Amino acid sequence: MQMKKRLVIAIDGPSAVGKSTVSKMLANSLDYTYVDTGAMYRAVALRVEEEGIDTDDEASLARLCAEVDILFSMENGRLKVMLDGRDVTEAIRSPSISLLASSVSAKMAVRDALLKFQRRIGKNGGVIVEGRDIGTVVFPDADIKFYLDALPEERGKRRYKELIEKGENVDLKEVTRETVLRDRSDSTREYAPLKAAVDAIDIDSTHMSVQELADKMLKIIGELG
Ligand code: DC
Prior knowledge:
Elements: E1 8-12, H1 19-30, E2 33-36, H2 37-51, H3 58-67, E3 70-75, E4 78-83, E5 86-87, H4 95-104, H5 108-122, E6 127-131, H6 134-138, E7 144-149, H7 152-165, H8 172-188, E8 201-204, H9 210-224
Parallel strand pairs: 1-6, 1-7, 2-6, 7-8
Antiparallel strand pairs: 3-4, 4-5
Bound molecules: 2'-deoxycytidine-5'-monophosphate.
């Protein structure tokens, strides 16, 4: 698709709603940069785990955020994540890091550091930025904002399928429970909680394939962009 202006497109929503897959598809179609902000929180969480930092120790969290070096690149349609020079693409996707990322992301010291990083990456436009607070806090002036949602049972199923395909030994009920719990804490935290921006376009993807979702979003981008 040809567009004159290189837009900032914000995509928010709860976990396992299809944000990452669709964001990559859109970035690919538009030749934009895909910015996975959740991966940044996950990378910080991995270091927190490795260093045994207490998530209530804001000073240590601030120190860690000031020194981490997170780099993204796309390789064969997959997002590769480098943390301090090592490949952590797989390591940051484990269920324990999902939970830890959710707790560290509630901390002001962490949000503050990553917010600056995210704004720097997106400032020139031509970006699909995916997360929880992109349309509300990170890019309140984004050109187009989407808020994706789907029923919890469907999101649980999607996350379960993803983990099974990776060879993890998980239980559907447990995965659904964890997904819902994580969303609850992401939506009720004090700073930058997960919520739709007032000017976001809401899409319920419960009964849509990822291709249908991408097509619908591309159509909207074409009309508004
Ligand atoms: O999108 P994800 O599942 O990879 O995100 C992991 C956690 O990071 C999520 O539970 C909440 C947090 N997060 C956030 O607080 N703000 C963002 N913009 C993106 C993710």
